[in-house]
Amino acid sequence: MTVLGKTIHISIDLILVSTCLAGLRRNTGLTPKLQTIENMTIRDYMSRYLNMGESIYDYSVATCGSSPYFGRK
Ligand SMILES: *[C@@H]1O[C@H](CO)[C@@H](O)[C@H](O)[C@H]1NC(C)=O
Asked: Ligand 1 centre and the CA of 42: distance in Å?
């Protein structure tokens, strides 16, 4: 596998994890405790990462909500 392919693969994995965390948060209210991270720089990046997941989650919900292939139970 090329370095680029690996990078893309890791990025997609990270995005999926972030989206999963957003779904978990929306459904259960559980969220990683960012205040346990001492380093402000890393904490800032983590919160951006989680926000990115939420954006993707919201986008997916909106897309599925307006799709004829998805319904509500
Ligand atoms: C946090 O971590 C980054 C990268 O590891 C480092 O450059 C920075 O100095 C650290 N900041 C604090 C406040 O410890």
From this structure: 7
Distance CA 8, CA 60 (A): 20
Ligand 1 atom with least separation from CA of 41: 1
Q: Is 42 in the pocket of ligand 1 (CB under 6 A)?
A: yes
* pLDDT, tens only, 7-19: 999 999 999 999 9
Q: Tell me how far the alpha carbon of residue 67 lies from the centroid of ligand 1, in angstroms.
A: 44
* Residue 72 pLDDT greater than 90, yes or no: no
Instruction: Specify the pTM.
Output: 0.80
**Average pLDDT along the chain:** 94
Tokens matching residue 57: 């989650």
Closest CA to 34 of 46, 16, 23: 46
